[in-house]
Each structure stands twice: as structure tokens, then as C-alpha cells.
């Protein structure tokens, strides 16, 4: 299958100019030297503009997979929320100790600036598409390339709106220093996203031949998400009528994806390992060669592309380092019983980010335990002792022993941070590349950016916010029925703090969703309440002594924008 390869191209952003050579000092000093690249002469063909768009795919791949193991990206992926924390030996880099978290924290600046980098790249591609020297083969060719760029611009602003609130809307290439950007409101930021996505909805095809390319369903999914976020903010501001309209639009756009005939939940075994008795359909979703829609996976709406051949040849970032970064460290936490870095302990884990007790255990307590997503092949809890001197050698090691094998409470807490069930999303029993020297740190499968199950969860939330708790429960049960859960929810389970929806998101989207975006867009004190309740380490509850529902605008951004004051978000002033 042909894939979109996400490497090997540099683009110019804003005023980034390159000089290839100059014939003489005189030529160099002429007003318009022909050897300088500018935003207007750097492109000469549609293929070059498409490569500028591919550069955005590449940046998003790296942002999601985090092949360089950047600390701030772990926060972007959920570290510091109710779902994720850090191991005992990484408490110094915790993202829930609010004695260290303020508007100068690098995570906020890196996140904010990275989304604007993507916006700058998108603006460049959009600008270049209208250059007079570009000859498009058809209006449709141009519409699709520009549509992808506008999607990425909208996606960046949606993330900024969810995390930081109203931000500055920039739609043109900035060619001179500018210090007077003005913030829009959060509602206006969401409206920009909605307008952009509505404008390109029909410019993206229902499906593509290439894995990883954007399709119409991705636009409609993001519209469902944007309208939901906007409705929540409108309701918070007291505009109930407008909020209800937004929630209805969220449902309508989710309906297009869920009921449109292109995408559907996978309910039967499929793909490269479907004949193996050990698996189930949820496990199949996360096996090599099974992720893309083009692989027969009707649940995949948009996936980042990972290619082992490209990784070996020239693209060292084409990997998912999930076994390494997310994997447990039994060799440190339960060395008397479990050791090594082979498949039996989930590969070569170093626990850069760990699931909280809530995410790994509490969401499956009692009646919630009977769930395919809690099966041993999906979330492996059966660990066979592999230390010859252990009384559990060759036998399952009880979790009571793994978690609480010491007489010292502090040691047990540390062990619990290092040892946890192994998700099939971060590890495998069949690692690619071992014969080439790979060490079970990386997966070489594609990974989801959008899966249909999240569209269903957006629709469930929008229905609940419309007062239709029965409809919300029915949507949740679409996922629970697929997961063959013993307990199906009812309208009475749909609580007003949206805990049921957040719990179901944790069960379905562990290691997939951007949890900070989810918690912060929900508003009120949902984010801080859940952090205080479920953070693994006690620092969060002890130091989170103020409320917030947005990340702070980075102080560097405020200070640099010297000609127009940028207001700081509530809760972060004077911190």
C-alpha cells in the first residue's frame, strides 16, 4: 500500500530566507538578488506546495509519536492529568507539582509556539497556492492541497482554543516584526475553526488511496469537536440558546461521520493476525498493518504514518517509541520476580509517563471489569515470574505482591509507579527489527490521530449537554457492546460532572486522546478536581491550591507582544 511519507522536505516560514550563492559582491548588494529565495519565488510547482503540506504531516507525526522524547510533549499527551503521571525516579520532572508550574514553564511556551509554527506553515502553503507561476492540473487538485493546509490551520487553532482560550488569529504570512497581536475570545477562536472547516468540508475526498492523507470525515469529526467546545464556552457565558445550537451542530456533524456509510466500528476479527486465537477485535486495532482505513480498518479516520523501511533508510523518527517511553520497569519495581526487557515484560520500558491508578485499575473496578478492553491480551495483567529464585518463577505474580511487596509504604508507592498493566497499544509480543538490532523499544505500526470511537464519544457528550441522557447512554453503549461489556449504561449513569464519559474515554482511548484538551475544554473545575482526585503523587493535591480551566498564556508571549497588552488567563495571574 502506498503511504504518505512524512520526511525529507524543508519549508520556508515567514521571513526565513535562504541564500544559495552569489556571483559577486555587486550582485549580492542589488535590491532584488535573483539568488535569494522568498516566499513568492521559492515555489514553482504544485508538487512543491504539496511537499510544504507534507512537512506539516511530518511535524504532527513527531508531535504525536515524540521520537525525541521531549518532556513537554509528554504533557501534551496527558502527563499531569487524571490519567498520567511520572515514575518515582522522575518526580523532579513532574507536571503536577504546582510549586514549579507557572506561566514561565517551558511546556506552555513549547506547546503554544509549536501550534503557531504549524499555522505559519499552513499560511505559507495557502499563500503559495495562489502564486501566478503555479499551474494546477485542475481546480480539484488545488482545492485538495489548500484544503489540507486549511485543515491543519484550523486544527492548530482548535488545540490553542481548548488549551489557552482565545488567541490571536493570524491568516497571512508575517513579513516584518510585529508586537501588537490581539487576543480574540475563546468563542471567536472556535468560530474561526468552524468557518475554516466548513469552507473545506467538500474539498476533501471521502477516502484516499494513500494512508495518512486527510479525508472528509476528519473535517466532520473536528467540526463535531469544535462545535462541542464552542457550546460549552457559550453555556459558561450564559448564552444558552447559542450553546444549544452549537451542541446540535456537534451532533449533526458527528452523525455525518458515524452514519455516513464510510466509517464504522470494527466488530469482528480482522487484519494481519486475525487468525490467532489469543486476540480479539480491540487487540486487532493496534497490530502492524491493521491501522489504516486502506488496510481494511473502517474505524480509522486519520492516522500518522510509520514506516520501518523509511526508518532504516533515512528517517530515524519514523517510529513509535511507546514501549520505551510508556513501558513499565518491572526490573526496578519487582526485581525479585520480574526482570529483563523482553516481550514478557513489555519490552525495554523506562517509564517516562505512567498511567495513574485511576486509568489502569479504578475504571475497571467492580461491575466495569467485564470488558474486552480489560482483557489480558489488551491490558496485560498476567505477568509470569522470570527470576529463578522467585517463589513465583514460571507462575503468575500477584499484583498484591508487585504493588505491595515491601514492608515500607514509600517503597510500595514507588513500585506502583514503576509496575503497571501493559497495554497492547504500547507493546507487542512480536517486535519488528530484532534481526536488525532493534531492542524492543519501538513499535513500527501506524497510529491513530482520529478513530471513530472518539467521534461517538463527542456525540454522546453533545447529546448529554442537550439534556438527552438516554441518547448519550446509547452512544456509550455502542462502544461497550463492541467491547462485549457485561454492564451497559443507562441514562441514570450519565452524571452531571461527565465522569461516566470521562471514564469511558479512559477505557477506550488510553494512550490515544489528548487528555488536557478534553479536561480543559469541559470548563468549570473539572480538570483541577480530577487532578486533585486522581494524580498519582500527593504533590498535586498539596500544591494545586487554585482553580483554573485554561493553561496560562506564556509570559514570553505576553512580554514580547509589547504594543498590545495580552490578558493572562484566570488563576495564573501573579504566579
Automatic annotation (TrEMBL):
Gene3D superfamilies: 1.25.40.390. Residues 72-228 form the SusD-like N-terminal domain. GO terms for cellular component: cell outer membrane. It is found in: Cell outer membrane. Keywords: Cell outer membrane, Membrane, Signal. It holds the Pfam family SusD_RagB. Residues 403-572 form the RagB/SusD domain. Belongs to the SusD family. This is RagB/SusD family nutrient uptake outer membrane protein. It comes from Sphingobacterium phlebotomi.
